[in-house]
Amino acid sequence: MSSPQAFSHRRALRAGFASFVGTAIEFYDFYVFATAAALIFGPLFFPEVEPALGVLASFATYATGFLVRPLGGIIFGHIGDRIGRRQSLVLTLLLMGVATMLVGFLPTFATAGFAAPILLVALRVLQGLAVGGEWGGAVLMAVENAPEKYKSFYGSFPQLGNPMGALLASGIFALLTLGGQEFMMDWGWRIPFLLSAILIGIGFWVRLKVEETPVFAEAQARRSAAAQPVELPAKLAFKRNWRAIIIGTGLIAISSGGYYIMTTFATAYATGATVGLDPTLVLNAMTFASFWHLLSTLPLGIAADRWGRKRVMAIGLVVSVAAVIPTFLVMGHSTWLLFALLALVRVTMNATWAPLAAIMSQMFDADSRQTSLSIAYSAGSALWGGLSPLIATGLFIATGSIWSVIAFYVLLTVVALVCLVLAPQLRDDVLEHTSERPTAPGTERDRHAAAH
Predict the structure, then answer these.
(1) C-alpha dihedral over 236, 427, 247, 315, to 10 degrees?
(2) N or C terminus: fewer CB in 10 A for the chain?
């Protein structure tokens, strides 16, 4: 292998910004669907059942997008590992944009009968395929353009896309609810989906301007120089990285599952018959929380580089449990406490999310990294993110107590903590800062566990 290349902050910032813009648009599309599932889709697409079961059916539709994520991870991971990270990201952005926009044109059950929920599920599947390939490519576009000492900071750029997407989604729905329930149920709910067409155009333009990552370029050059045939990324992923994939799947139990409990399920719970809060109030609270989630992401990335990314994530896991309990208990009793606690929950949970890009990208070798990363993240999202709102809703219906949901959140925290302890951390030698170049070049990967 050649000596490590000099690091450019300008190139890393450009890659980080492109990752942020794309993931923000992708998560906006995904969260628009999630918010509509909690507030709108039940009566529009499942009017034949009781309201509570309508929400459950709506969440089941929402969950299908998670269940197909691993397939999207394999498809677009293969493209990213063999053709390039950038090419895979352009394709996922286009697929997500088209699927989301088409939701805005769907007929409802009143006009199309059972064809309406079937079409809704089909478009949700396309969304799931796109997101399954998006996150892994976006993370690697940012992390692989940074040396070890800056990986958590630049890796937090694509993590900004999650709160920004949530902020945009809850914000637009909060504005639309000002038009009244009749306006929303008539045609107002379509507006957030149709707006996706404009956002996709912006993201497409930004991503076409970004360069390929140095780590991918080095791996591609090494493969071209090798005499032996190159194995498929998916085959390499399961042969070399199956343990790390399992660990990565459990690692995001709170970052994905806990997050959707405190957004999608919490929205449905707070606006349901038990608590009975006004949807506009709850959406405003979620928008406020998303703002603080967004604001805290880069500082948490910096903290993870300075104090250790595993340490920051562990703190976030433990503290978030302490914040979740009073959040559910104050719903319907104190508006200002609800706003403050939802924001606190999102910041503490963000400590499990902001360092996640650097942690998970460094769990796998470069030859099948995007495929391995995408499979682990997508499988975890399908298991935890896709099913958690459904399980939480089922637990609450079965027990009638919010404490069953809180206990489920605690269980997810334990799973994530165990996987965090077990997660391997490898080191890239392709890029190094000029002040910290190694005394002698190593192999492609320094396989000593990093201090993080």
Answers:
(1) -160
(2) N
